[in-house]
Amino acid sequence: MAQLIFKGRDIYYDVKGLGKPFVILNGIMMSTKSWEPFMESFSENNMCIRLDFLDQGQSAKLKSSVYTQDLQVQIIEALIKELNLSKVSIVGISYGGEVALEFAVKHPNLVDRLVLFNTTPYTSPWLAEIGYKWNSIGRTRDGKTYYQATIPAIYSPSFYESRLAWMKKREEILLPIFSNPDFLDAMERLTNSAEHYDVRDRLDQITAPTLIVAADEDYLTPINNQKYLNEHIKESSLVILPGVGHASMYETPMVFVSLVLGFINTKQTSYQV
């Protein structure tokens, strides 16, 4: 547990383990606590660095502020300097994947490997409308309706139906959070920060070997988004998870961990075969 002071505001981060370092970046509704089920594996042979973006988890809240994801990019740069690291791998999912892409475009010299789950190269008009709907519901302060609008859609229908008891437990945990006005206001700011996100014209600037993971039942960032990334990032590979939704790390946790650690820790990047 540690605090980084960034522009006078506290940024919460956590470092566990020793070895090759990687930073793992939260999806929009996540926090450092969301990765706890994976930390035993992530920290066994690696330095795993978690952080809460501004307006997430235990980091400062930017009340009455308007900002873009570039602010989160600056935080990652400051954290790498704080930890005195010359280069790190970056793992991001969804919102975190977007910030990871922006960071890799802006600071290619700081990125060793890049792993992107359920990530889009831009906020499409369709995705923006989903964000507007979330914000509108959030302003009603109706936590149950907010849950119903945001959570079921991030899972594949087959997973949701087969894990109904687990989903009900998730609902019990999340309803008090989703009924908190401070959380809902922070979510609106985070959602708005991605409204004009677009790295399509800069993907050729990414130099790190990149693994792109798509899920064929992801209805928030559909598979064509990941195919676009694969077509436009030079040193990239695409893996498609069948029967999986947007929250791929929870639906296929062992596969998630295997892909992250396998890609980051593989010694060679080229092979003579």
TrEMBL record:
One of its GO terms (cellular component) is membrane. Keywords: Hydrolase. The keyword Oxidoreductase does not apply. This is 3-oxoadipate enol-lactonase. InterPro entries: AB_hydrolase_1, AB_hydrolase_fold, AB_hydrolase_sf. Residues 20-251 form the AB hydrolase-1 domain. It comes from the Bacteria. It comes from Mariniplasma anaerobium. GO terms for molecular function: hydrolase activity. Belongs to the lipase/esterase LIP3/BchO family.
